[in-house]
Amino acid sequence: MKRLKFTDLLITIMIGVVFGILMKFWDDLYTVVKPILPVARQLIYGMWFMVGPFAYLLIRNPGTALIASIAGASLSAFAGHGIEVLIYGFVQGLAAELLFAAFRYKRFSMAVAGLAGVASCLGSFTLDLFYGYAALETWALIVKYGLRAISAFIFTGIFAVLIVRALEATGVTSLIRPVDKKEYTMLDR
Amino acid sequence: MLAWFTPRRETWLFKVNPALKFIIFFAFLLITLFNQNLSFAVWQAVLYGILFYGFSGYSMKKLALLSIPLAISFFSSALTIVLFGKGESVLWQWGLIKISEESIQHALLLGSKSLSFGFVGFTFLLTIQPILFFYAMMQQFRLPSKYAYSFIASFRLIPAVTEELQIRRNALKVRNIQFSRGLKGMYERLQMYTVPLFAESIRRAQRIAVAMEAKQYQMGAARTYYYPTRYSLMDGVFLTVMAIGLGVTLMLAFWR
Predict the structure, then answer these.
(1) By CB count within 10 A, which of A75, A110, B82, B94 is most buried?
(2) Which pLDDT tens digit goes with each residue over B86-97?
(3) Per DSSP, which regions of chain B are E strands?
């Protein structure tokens, strides 16, 4: 485990900001879907939990999930989504970060990433309780947040892991991650 | 686009230290978030509405235009709660839809909170310069420069990223890429767009970081600032106005 170098930090925040832009476009889709298909709308909600776990899977440094999540949220806030998204971004990032910390920052599997997404979802649910989005009938509450948690798992567990693998194939991750012991021994041969 | 965001006149809110303005607004919105009292929530929305419509310095036409998304967020957030919200004293029921007195109250509470967040968010965004906000965060609130400069650098790259996204969209269209249906298609779409976008953004961010360090940027080193920001008399005015606003809204809501 190492501290964040400046390069890592800049890349983390950049990823958060790019995610913020993607979420802006995703939001347009979301707004179209919202009134007609409330179920489909909850199923694409996982996108909002993806940024933190994704950044952590990519950079593999403590703190990246939280920082990237805040960065993504601040872009959304600057794009006019209101300051409350900053609070949500902070809580969601913190929840994902704590989950990775619970595994001592050593696990990068689909299951752990997916759980981080569900943790983020739980964090946002807690805020929703205070905000008032959760003042629903019990059945509606279960449907809404159940679908949302499933979506969180799919987006952060499956999609994020697969996209990170695709990015590894392009070779850009070699700019970020520390040099492996294996690569040093290759040089000695 | 940016020319649109020039105010008609610069009100006193423009002269408040941007970092202080952010911290105070943020603290006030935390109160809004955790508040569960309907009349307090409504009066708070009124207070922030006065700030937004009266003191942001923009013409009424522009403010009316900005009010559209606020109205949409008010109704869309309130509607679900009205129709599916919990409550005992039922007014009208049809299948799964059940409107009760409590659900209407919850919806109004939620709607007023959305309005408050929207008003404050726009008031803040309309009366600051983003660069000065980050400089003030560094100077008045000791935000480490590594975060501030990373944010500034990333924000500067937004136009490049959106342009890239546009190019990618056109490229996929020209190649007539067909996506599968359902979940698989959603992943395909996500991958097709994000992989090149992230690969390029990571390379770009890394180049910027290397360039900054090559020019002797050091994390945690003592620095001077190109844009000095400081407190002024207007900050006192701002604090007083916000304190009085909070006092008055509390009184209107709870004092009988």
Answers:
(1) A75
(2) 777 777 777 777
(3) 90-94, 97-100
